[in-house]
UniProtKB/TrEMBL annotation:
Entry similarity comment: Belongs to the ATP11 family.
Protein name, entry field: ATP synthase mitochondrial F1 complex assembly factor 1 isoform X1
Statement: the UniProt record of this protein carries the keyword Transit peptide: yes
PANTHER family: ATP SYNTHASE MITOCHONDRIAL F1 COMPLEX ASSEMBLY FACTOR 1 (PTHR13126:SF0), CHAPERONE ATP11 (PTHR13126)
UniProt main location, coarse: mitochondrion
Subcellular location: Mitochondrion
Name of a matching Pfam family: ATP11
Keyword NADP in record: no
Keywords tagged on the record: Mitochondrion, Transit peptide
UniProt lineage: Eukaryota, Metazoa, Chordata, Craniata, Vertebrata
Amino acid sequence: MSDRVESKMAAAMVHMCCLYRGMLAVRNTGIRPLIPGVAPLQLRAFSVRKEPTLEENPFYSKYGDKIAQLRRLKPQEFEACIEKRRELKRQPLGQSQQAEFIKLIEEESEKLGKRASGSGGFSKDKTLGSILNVDMVKEKTAEEIGQIWMHYFATKDTICAIIPGEKFETMSDRGKNCPTFLYALPQEEGYEFFVGQWSGNELHFTSLINVQTIGQNAPSQLILYHYPELQKDKGIVLMAAEMDHKFLDVTKAQCLANQVQLFYGTQHQETFHLVELFNHKPADFKHMSVIAKLEQTGISHPRA
């Protein structure tokens, strides 16, 4: 069993524990989503109940076989995972400060952005030429190229986009100054948070729970590749994505991609101000503002 698989399993076990405790929001009036460091005091009693066994956890079925295999073949690693789970349960909610939490995310996501994108089955050095014959489309219009691009990916289990050149220039410039942001992915109950990190023209996503439990070894679960080769002549930038289908489906990946344009490509300064706060004034950043913006703009609840 590889170290990468064991790391994912460890994160999965901690993730199951956290979800069961209510670390992600429940959509009830007056209930605020919980993430470490920002838990309101009135929600500390949220998880007061009999502690479930590992098998009783509602997320056990997703990872049960791998957990059982780890328990059988490497009992020491399994016990280490269980101890990590116990440590999280012993930590009082709301103990750490929000600024410290954001600092941790910044440090770990910076390491994430420096890693090569070849891990987790993702392509290394993915170029536009590996997808599209650039010479053959030079004589075509931007609209025709867009149609070819969309048609190529129509039958593939991924997402793509044609981004206006001016909008991408805005997104790219902002990404250089504010490379990291915290995205909220709507789930059936509440939200799961993802850290997005720009690395050149690539945007890497990994779940917050991965950053917290695995740190710099957290694998990318979604990568958005942006190709500006046609930006000057055709006024468009092509985007394609790769994702880890064990954790994300196309609909959820599309939701995250939509949020990139929402927060980095917006013409409303107050929306991009959330990104600036996260990067430059983390003590003033409020994660609930991200969720409020999603609700305000009507980004739909992703469903498979």
